[in-house]
């Protein structure tokens, strides 16, 4: 019956170490643990939900833009993580994941482990849409906010791993463009 949570890599999961079964259960655990909703938010994880650090609302303008990671201290090194984006689960899902940060665009193949800078994972966290339930004779009901590009984070990685994978991907892209007569 306890909603005590275990914290793994800054992500709060249920006492069993599994994602919470619902947004309500995650929010309840957040309240029980005394976690501030201004500095933590509920995120989709696997078949459920988890609590992650970061603001759920843009506190400067109150627009509610969704999860934002806390600012890194000036001068701190950028973090990199090995992740895998979920395979396509719907006919409307894009085949590849396209993420852009400050003019830098990455096209990422789903279903393969890759290394990415934290800033691109933040962009993926912001790529969400609202899922609704529509029933006859009832008002439309918002079920939840869903990640457009769900991913699994495996471990912290290094800049060297990211740069090596990016070089390899850039070379493959250039080769493909030349083969198609586009470069």
Ranges with pLDDT <50 over ≥5 residues?
1-9, 55-75
Q: Would you list the SSEs in sequence order as H and E?
A: EEHEEEEEEHEEEH
- β-strand percent reads 25-35%
Number of helices: 3
Q: What is the assembly state of the chains in this entry? A: single chain
Question: Distance between termini?
Answer: 61 Å
Q: What is the global morphology? A: globular
Report mean pLDDT, rounded to a whole number. Answer: 77
Summarize the amount of helix as a percent range. Answer: 10-25%
| Gyration radius over CA | 19 Å
Number of strands: 11
- What topology, given as strand order, has the largest sheet? 8-5-11
**Major β-sheet, in short?**
3 strands, antiparallel
Structural class: alpha+beta
Secondary structure topology:
Elements: E1 6-8, E2 11-13, H1 23-32, E3 40-45, E4 48-53, E5 80-85, E6 96-101, E7 104-109, E8 113-117, H2 118-126, E9 128-133, E10 141-147, E11 151-157, H3 159-179
Antiparallel strand pairs: 1-2, 3-4, 5-8, 5-11, 6-7, 9-10
What does this structure look like?
Strands 8-5-11 form a three-stranded antiparallel beta sheet. It has a two-stranded antiparallel ribbon with strand order 1-2. It has helices spanning 23-32, 118-126, 159-179, and strands at 6-8, 11-13, 40-45, 48-53, 80-85, 96-101, 104-109, 113-117, 128-133, 141-147, 151-157. Mean pLDDT is 77; it is low at 1-9 and 55-75. It starts with 5 loop residues before the first strand and ends with a helix. The chain has three helices and eleven strands, in the order ββαββββββαβββα. The chain is 22% helix and 33% strand.
């Amino acid at each position: 019956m306890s909603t005590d949570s275990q914290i793994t890599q800054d992500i709060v999961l249920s006492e069993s170490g599994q994602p919470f079964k619902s947004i309500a259960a995650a929010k309840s655990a957040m309240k029980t643990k005394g976690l501030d909703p201004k500095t933590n938010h509920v995120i989709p994880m696997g078949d459920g939900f988890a609590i992650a650090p970061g603001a759920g609302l843009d506190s400067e303008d109150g627009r509610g833009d969704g999860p934002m990671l806390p600012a890194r201290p000036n001068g701190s090194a950028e973090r990199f993580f090995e992740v895998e984006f979920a395979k396509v689960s719907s006919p409307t899902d894009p085949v590849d994941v396209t993420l852009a940060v400050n003019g830098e665009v990455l096209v990422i193949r789903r279903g393969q482990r890759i290394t990415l800078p934290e800033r691109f994972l933040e962009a993926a966290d912001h790529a969400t849409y609202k899922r609704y339930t529509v029933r006859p004779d009832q008002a439309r009901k918002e079920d939840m906010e869903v990640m457009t590009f769900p991913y699994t984070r495996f471990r912290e990685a290094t800049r060297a791993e990211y740069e090596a994978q990016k070089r390899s991907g850039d070379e493959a892209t250039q080769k493909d463009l030349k083969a198609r007569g586009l470069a």
